[in-house]
Amino acid sequence: MKMSPRTIGILFHEKNRKRHLSGYAITFLAEFWSQDGHRVHYLFGTRKFVPADLLLVHVDLSVVPDEYLEFASRYPIALNSGVKDIRKSQISTNLVKQGDAYSGKVIVKTNLNFEGSPEQILRRHRWQLLASRFVRDHAIGTGLETHSKYRIYNRLTDVSPAVFERNDLVVEKFLPEQEGNFFFVRNYEFLGDSATCTRLASRDPIVKDQTIVWIEEIEPHPEIVQARKRLNFDYGKFDYVIYDGQPVLLDANKTTGADRVRTPELNARRRRRANGIYSYFT
Q: Are residues 208 and 281 in contact, defined by beta-carbon separation less than 8 angstroms?
């Protein structure tokens, strides 16, 4: 897009400087901005202020430390500066507690996003690793094991009482989008006024990259689009399903991951989202 060159800052956690950033989708978008003639600066931590026309907060933790949000407030435009806490206990509207009168299937997950992996890497918190192992290895009952570390139970009463005593685990209603033998998850990815949405199919109840058998482009559900405003998201990815005709938000991610695949279809979707940055400059 033709406009005078701008400076765009992307704020990472201070410990990200020692990691390869290619696993983040934002790096693909940054390549497009550079190709368009704009300056892109990667900032690690809050010790050094680098002037920019816009800053995108990209701290890969479920709960963003206040120092990063305070640092972002120094910029004229600060994207995702209103997104502090994306734990499932804060985002989900389908949580169930021990003793609830709910008779459907349930699923046990880690409270933190992406099974707590970012916290394990950046903060080296062993208790987060233990939380994900607990879900995988010690959640007793008649749980259905999946390709992920999540477990699905036929009834709420099948979940071990020990699960409900832990703040690092949550229990949700299991509300799958299913057609025949296939399960689906929809990925709504966005930046500013630009977005893409895909529907992913799997034979596994938990739809993950390693279980996907096909992908199709779709239009996002209006209620999921509206959820961006409610959750203060400028950039990110919402995973959701359609259950009984209604959208169900599963996950809200503000530091979307990506592999290094560069198919024409993927590049086109990335280019479309990258253009969303320019809506903040007009």
A: no
